[in-house]
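Why predict the complex rather than its parts? Because the way molecules touch one another can change local conformation, and only a joint prediction can capture that. The input here totals 793 residues.
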Amino acid sequence: MLSRVASSLYWLSRYIERSDGILRMLKINYASSQDTVQEFTWEPVIRIFTGLQAEEKEALGNDSRAVLKYMVLDKENPNSVLNIITQARENARSVQEHITKDLWQCLNEYYHAVRDPALSFWIEKDDPITALDILIKQGMLYYGTVEITMERGEGRAFMNIGHYLERGIQSVDLLDTKFGSLDDNPDLLTDTTYWKHLLLSLGGYEIYLKTYRKGFEAENVVEQVVLNNEFPRSVLYSVNHIQMYFERLKSENNIDNFRELTFLIGRLQSSIKYSSVKTIKQDGLHEYLTRIRSELFNIGNVLNQHYFAYS
Amino acid sequence: MNDQAYFNQYQPTPNTWDEMFGADAKIRKHYQKVINYLTKESIDDLNKKEDLAKRLFMSQGITFTVYSSGEGIEKIFPFDIIPRIITGEEWAFVEKGIKQRLNVLNLFLKDVYSNQFIIKDGIVPIDIIYSCPHFLREMYNVQVPYDIYVHIAGIDLIRDHDGTFYVLEDNLRTPSGVSYMLENREITKRLFPDLLPQCKVRSVTEYPNILYKNLLSLSPRQIPNPTIVLLSPGIYNSAYFEHTTLARLMGVELVEGRDLVVSNNKVFMKTTTGLQQVDVIYRRVDDEFLDPLVFNQTSILGVPGIMDAYRKGNVAIVNAIGNGVADDKAIYSYVPDMIRYYLNEEPILKNVPTYQLGNPDEKEYVFENINKMVVKRTNGSGGYGMLMGHAATLEETEDYKNEILKNPRDFIAQPTISLSSAPCYMQGKLTPRRIDLRPYALCGPDGIEIVPGGLTRVALREGSLVVNSSQGGGSKDTWVLL
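Output of the joint prediction:
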């Protein structure tokens, strides 16, 4: 497979996963902003998904519609859903003969949906959840189409590596940000809605209720989001899948590069697998998550260097 | 009957061959079934079909992007829902004519890049060839597989007021538009269920298979699975959709210049598992940009060193490099003589009479009759830089004359040919619009094959004779009947 094609498929997949993460996060946060007596703060969301400076964040304030508009539709925001989907489509466009026609049409429709003027009407004037749901559904259509139509080959492996790398990074970021807020406001530790929203925005609320019967506790949340291999957005689940799909790229032609990456992925996988909530507490959660994040970034960089660096 | 008002109001253009209406204002037989079908539909139905066509083009991304004010706007190439119909007899004639012509053009290219008998025998003047910017000395004595230079040709045909076919121009470099031949047919299948089989329309779907078979046969390495690629300038090219469509339909890799590298006079592509040798390149990049070491030094679309690999015979390039000398508009007027010279046959398809402005007598004649002429640049394309004598103002004509006098060799003139017309559905009415026809001929070691169909371009503006898409042209599905 051409390096350029591999790179485009990998990024296509990362972009879609990112927009999915953003949209779900926005939906839950918006809902929660409608269900609180205190002033709702968008700061953690903005911190995770934008590179805004303090004064720019200030300007955006806590106006839900303004934040939604900025995060979904703003052309100037490089990480807005509009721009991410445009990027995803550009990547798909240059590799059209490597994805199925169904998948190309699906992305094309997603692109036209995000540019539909009705969307900004819902966000600015009417019910924003409708707009977010339309887009989330487009994302689900994408995942379904990939699952049903895409060939199980090298291209799919690169797409899945991108997908799970992005997902792992998102879960780490979210957990780190949410727990970071505890330092300023220890009351949150006992605030059940705070944990509920965290889990909801990762789609892990139901699984939490089934696993832990005693209500919300910070330690259990950490255990689920980092270590639960049954939870599809946990860090361990993501890294296990990166490992699984990378294994499929094994080829005699570049065995040295393959070994180097296998080593990096395996080391990260083991270090998570052989952690427990107890050892994480000993290390300090923030330090632990920071290390995982930098190892995930490093895997992305080495992959780029050995498999995509075609120029 | 009110519903059919759009049909009854049809007014064919006077002194023009109308594809649907005969001279006695009767519908030609081969249009009858389509018209019967259409008259059962109301204006509302047809408007819905038009909308459906637009939606299909849009959702399938069959678009080109126009960049303005910092953002890309997706546009579709205008499509008229009423098909253009060619009878089996007409097609047999066109097919025979194109085969003869393409055969000769290949012989001409072989000759002009080797022995040059045609120059020595005084059939084509030497200065016409050597002054052509597309004549590439770099191609002299290069061996190309099976002596085929033109693997894919798009010969543009038009019909005069009595229905006679004329060749308007030969496109032998990187003719485009074939994806519209294929996609327009797919759209028609959706718009008019059952109509195609009822009318016994011949299928065009074989095109990518024939092309692939030909590409495969050109591989310099005799190995089971040679690597065939389609070289595209990239996603910003207006024909990018076509490149991806063809690559997908043939199952070949779509590459850009930056994906390829030349080492030891061989071409390789950069893959995730290292370099992989490339055997055949169907390139959609012009000669000029193909190799910055030999041609345009500033090109980043090409592959440095590819010309060396080509000259050594380590890679096949389709179409061959340097074909522009055969479709130059000044060479065009010698094609009938070439047919007589190489084959000792009379040309089947006529040329439009052409005046060389490089010739002082002909120039004088053209200047005297300029309002009956179309003047073109010999190396122009896309309908740019033309003068339509009958429609130009006095001032435009004078400016253009001055332009000609600077370098007369660069211009030719042809009498204004009226172009045949065909019915188009516009704002609830059928109205005649001028059309041309570009069939796609494929030349391989087994001979020349032409899929029964082609691209019919339409001049959508009323009264316009220019069908180029850059000048407000659209397209129609083109039916060839059994």
